Amino acid sequence: MNILLLGSGGREHALAWKIAASPLLTRLWCAPGNAGIAREAECVAIDIADHGAVIDFCKANAVDLVVVGPEAPLAAGIVDDLDAAGIKAFGPSKQAAQLESSKGFTKDLCREFDIPTGAYRRFSNANDALAYVRAHSAPIVVKADGLAAGKGVVVATTLPQAEDAIAMMFDGTFGAAGAEVVIEEFLTGREISFFAFCDGETAIPLASAQDHKRVLDHDEGPNTGGMGAYSPTPFVTPEIHQQIMARIILPTVAGMKKRGTPFRGVLYAGVMLTPDGPKLFEYNVRFGDPECQVLMLRMMSDIVPAFLASCDGQLKNFNLRWYNEAALTVVMAANGYPGDYKKGTRIDGLDEAAAIEGVEIFHAGTVSRDGKILANGGRVLNICGSGKTISEAQRRAYQAVDRIDWPDGFCRRDIGGQAVEQEGSG
Ligand code: AMP
Ligand code: GLY
Q1: Gap between the Cα atoms of 98 and 296, Å rounded
Q2: Structural domains for the chain
């Protein structure tokens, strides 16, 4: 099969690595890709926002399957456009991608189908929103309805913070994404990421994972795209897993089908394990980054038949197998991220780091110039370790981090810390 992968992050490097291992593969391209992906796929400089250009490439190269990594092309309807051109694509339609591109859409779906989530209201003007937060007080969560590159959520611990967030969103900081605002009850508990492949009718769960969204150790500092992840997480017990499937994932798939917008692709639920049971706080319609990196390391099955089964509505009898080993990834980011950072700084020691047993390195924002790897983004590298336990995976990942010579980058030092503590006490 000929496959085209869209995207350029660590998530896409992990997907490229996994797809490249498939015996079904003939040729793999990635648009636009990065320096690491170039080892697994032929990188092509297509603008993936230009759906016509993507379709032309697929036709010229007899592409059998397109795998879409990030949310923006999904929200822009790339799967619908590929479909109309007769090209198979893994991912949801534009309508179904509203689970990520409109927080209000998801909250209304939860209300209609009795899916556990925080109480909420939708607002299209600042005055009504301000009156609501004043009546409910803090902590409270203010969310821009649309896609805001991960910056559209403000967890307000005080009323003035909530008021400022409302003013900022209706002031047009996020453009059209902030024209509507959702205000949501603050949920307490542990946050986990839950993934399922869906084919419009059926959902099959993937392994559990946990992200680390804040930039600094001990979950301090601003939110980022994700600074590290591990899988499996001991906090998703078989009972919790079953509850998430029965109360959140399956009712969502059934509800989307009933509404005439069936969901195909990978559904990523952000779930808070609250004292009252698991509650949904957001959906994404793609793999998490960096959760995908650890999931790909642990997936034993060939992923290509799973993509095809999702596209073709054939997941019902599908079975995915996983390695028992744990996996953990540490994100290395450019100094200054998630604020301003420099590009073009040189990274050495990658081969020495990758030589450690159980270590795999996935690139995010990198370019290759004259045989050297240079940083080219905020999140730059994913240093991954596998092992019999989370502790072993963690030890290997940090050993590898310590071999990397990149004075202009940093990482968190506590990825997987809570799971390691749990292992120690268990
Ligand atoms: P997002 O950018 O949508 O991933 O959300 C950023 C973060 O906000 C999430 O990872 C959660 O930690 C937090 N968050 C979102 N909704 C809630 C909520 N209702 N209660 C508490 N925290 C929340
Ligand atoms: N890991 C967070 C995200 O992919 O949105």
Answers
A1: 26
A2: 2-91 (3.40.50.20), 125-179 (3.30.1490.20), 190-317 (3.30.470.20), 326-425 (3.90.600.10)
Q: What is the pLDDT of residue 306?
A: 98
Where does ligand 1 bind, in terms of residues with CB under 6 Å?
118, 141, 150, 153, 155, 184-187, 191, 213, 223, 270, 281-282
Q: What is the pLDDT of residues 144-192, one digit of tens each?
A: 999 887 778 999 999 999 999 999 999 888 878 778 999 999 999 999 9
| Ramachandran quadrant class, 33 (left: phi over 0; alpha: psi -120 to 50; beta: rest) | left
Ligand 2 centroid vs 268 CA: distance in angstroms? 9
Per-residue CA distances from 208 to 234, 241, 297, 406 (Å): 9, 8, 13, 31
The verdict on the CB of residue 211 being under 6 Å from ligand 2 is: yes
pLDDT over 70 percentage in the chain: 100
Q: How many CB atoms lie within 10 A of CB 14?
A: 31
Name the average pLDDT for the chain.
Answer: 96
Beta strands 2-7 and 65-68 are parallel
